[in-house]
Amino acid sequence: MKISCEREEIKNITPVYNSNSELFRIWRKFDAGCAFFSTLALVSATLDYETNYPGDRTYSNCHDNFIRREGFRYTTLLLTLLSIFFTILRFIYKSLWIQTMQRLNNIKWSPENFSDKIFVQKRNLALEILLLLIIPYPGMNINVSIPLRVEEETRITCYTLAELFYCVMFFRCFFIIRSISNYSNFQDEWARMGCKKYNTKPGFSFAFKCLLKTQPAFMISLLFMMVLFFTAIIYRVLERPLDEFSTFYNSDPFIPLWFIFESMSTVGFGDIFPITYFGRTVSVFAFIVGAAILSLLIVKLQDVTTLNNSQKQVFERVSLSKTAAAFIKAGIRFYLAKLKYRPGHPVIFRRYFELRKVKKEFSRIKAMNLIIDFSMSESIFEIKNNISTAHKQLKDCKTELDRCIELVKSL
Which pLDDT score, from 0 to 100, does residue 82 have? Predict the structure, then answer.
């Protein structure tokens, strides 16, 4: 009867599990589609900026070309609408997947908790759509005048609203990183079950940390390259209108790229510096992010170069044997020198100082091994103590058993 009940339960769970796996694959594909089309829209916006930037642009005059090619902007709008479409589908299928996961894990939420979770998901969806809608639209020729302090004078600098929206579009790199984390092993149903078991909140943050732990070289390189190129482009857009006050010529894309690389590497040669407030803000952001990435790199290199306990014991044992052999060799050479030369000869003094140097190194290595031996001897002593205690208890039990046997025989 028990076996038949278990088989019936498995039959009931199997369709739910298959549906859950299918929903997981679908919403993950929609998430990848959102990242793909949003990245293509960013590329189209970049081509629009590069092809339509006026050659006679000055800080006070940001007029557009009369014959502006709007094709790239229409392409950007179309790709953005596709990414929004995939984002909505991702939200729908992920909600269905979460509900199926609840059935598998026998989770029963109260109406209040369920409504709160739906509200959070809808809020995140609204924020993502709002971020995707910030693009340079076709026909957007609005100018924004910003006072900037340049060469001890306040100059009214002109930017186009399309340029500022183009800079905001680089926050779409979040979709790329999220899509990569979703295709890892730390976002599927098994990972969710493990998070439930150990009371850990699953999500993008958990998957990103796990990827950083398992694939540090790939994740650190990806973060560094994305921040480097995207920040360099934003810096170029913000500093380029003031090229007439600078000798760096930010219209050359390699100048901003080199400056951001200097900032992220925390070197800062000082050969290039920003003029605008926006450029300075971007450079400070690049410095902070670069310092954080370099810190992660140093931590991972430390983990690679650190010996574990067994490797440390082998290293110290080999070092002790090598220094012991060198100590014996130096002692023999000193003894032979005393036999061969008269007292006070320079060779004797040289052999003596060599012996002292090797003896000092041998004492240091021996002290390190004594620490290991002491820690190991403590463990061995504790084991021996437990064995002796158990042996004593067995002996007392045997004595008591013999006494009981004698008592029974007397009866």
Answer: 95
